[in-house]
Amino acid sequence: MKNNRLPPGLVSNLQQVLLNRKVTETETEQPSTEPSVCSDNVETNQDDDDSGKPVVFVTNADGIDSPGLRFLVQALVARGLYSVFVCAPQSDKSHSGHSLTVGESVAVYSSELDGATAYEVSGTPGDCVSLALSGVLFSWSKPLLVISGVHKGSSCGHNMFHSGAVASAREALSSGVPSMSISLNWKKDESQESDLKDAVSVCLPLINAAISDIKKGDFLKCCSLNVDVPTSPLKNKGFKSTIKSPWRSSSNWQAVSASRQPSAARFMSNQQSLGMQLAQLSRDASAAGAARRSTSQQKNVEVDSVGVSKKSDFNRTVKYFIQELVDKDLEDANEELDFRALENGYVAITPISLAPSTDADTQRATSSWIASAIEEPQ
């Protein structure tokens, strides 16, 4: 690898992976004398569960029933080296970004998932990681590693901004926990569920290398890894350190006939819908009680309705639209860009940092504009 942006210890492991396609538990390495690319702002101690095994936490923005989650958990459990814990959304939240549920209840249900301790959560991908690391749900609060994956669809370029996959890993990073997100460059009418399983097998050496470095204190300290696997995982050309590209999917909005739409409750989460129904029942019961008391005290009082008056939907125009994300070409041929490397058949590994990336020229231009705007008379 040339011009890599990964720490020396992990690079050494990846080079061994490319040669042997596996990392053995007996592998030994000389400590690197090169300086680390990141500042040391992450603690190295992790929690174990009651079995004494280190904890690996897994989530998936595609939802608790996603095959990519199932394949990854199966592979980790099969190794028998870790205690695997899972929290994932009840439904697909892959494009929810880094949204969090604040001030509202989040329901958590136990789930069966291939030997792991698993829960499905009514909230967002960010909620799942935040809750897991809070110490409220599990007996631990700092796992060895957080893995978000394997997701359908790449998280390259600007797609990272609305990617629930990347947000999950970023939430862990913000809590000081090593993390990575893994996505497959899923192609409609081409990709198959078995490709997700192949993506897991391709990334297992990378996961093993990361865990090995975490134990030695050599893993990334200030960034997470965003891993994008090519459409045909088993035909990949190897791992490649990449940089975030300006590529993004284009939005395709289409109007949908109202006759094809289900009831509005269909678009709410189960919790939201149930909560609104319970709230309405409570209001109706209170109003009914008040009506009965009023009737018993004043026989001539007539109550027209026990419900709460609200604006009728019959007086409002409702339109329905649906959005699809469509891949588009990127003219930039820079081989170091994540999207270009992915399209060329490489497993693209892009570091995601919490540090601001505004360049000096942009910062100066912004400061100059603010100064001039304040000075101008209004």
Characterization of the model:
This protein has 378 residues and is of the alpha/beta class. The protein folds into two domains: 8-248 and 330-363, Survival protein SurE-like phosphatase/nucleotidase (Stationary-phase Survival Protein Sure Homolog, Chain: A, 3-Layer(aba) Sandwich), CATH 3.40.1210.10; 253-321, no CATH class. It is 31% helix and 18% strand. It contains eight helices and eleven strands. It has helices at 8-20, 67-79, 125-132, 164-174, 193-216, 270-297, 338-343, 360-375, and strands at 55-59, 83-89, 108-113, 116-121, 145-152, 179-184, 223-229, 239-241, 250-256, 320-326, 347-353. Strands 3-4-2-1-5-6-7-11-8 form a nine-stranded mixed beta sheet, sandwiched between helices. It has a two-stranded antiparallel ribbon with strand order 9-10. Strand 1 (55-59), helix 2 (67-79) and strand 2 (83-89) form a beta-alpha-beta unit. The chain is globular. The termini are far apart. This is Survival protein SurE-like phosphatase/nucleotidase domain-containing protein. Residues 56-243 form the Survival protein SurE-like phosphatase/nucleotidase domain. GO terms for molecular function: metal ion binding; nucleotidase activity. Keywords: Hydrolase, Metal-binding.
What layout of secondary structure does this protein have?
Blueprint: H1 8-20, E1 55-59, H2 67-79, E2 83-89, E3 108-113, E4 116-121, H3 125-132, E5 145-152, H4 164-174, E6 179-184, H5 193-216, E7 223-229, E8 239-241, E9 250-256, H6 270-297, E10 320-326, H7 338-343, E11 347-353, H8 360-375
Helix pairs in contact: 1-5, 2-5, 3-4
Protein name: Survival protein SurE-like phosphatase/nucleotidase domain-containing protein
Domain Survival protein SurE-like phosphatase/nucleotidase: 56-243
Pfam families: SurE (PF01975)
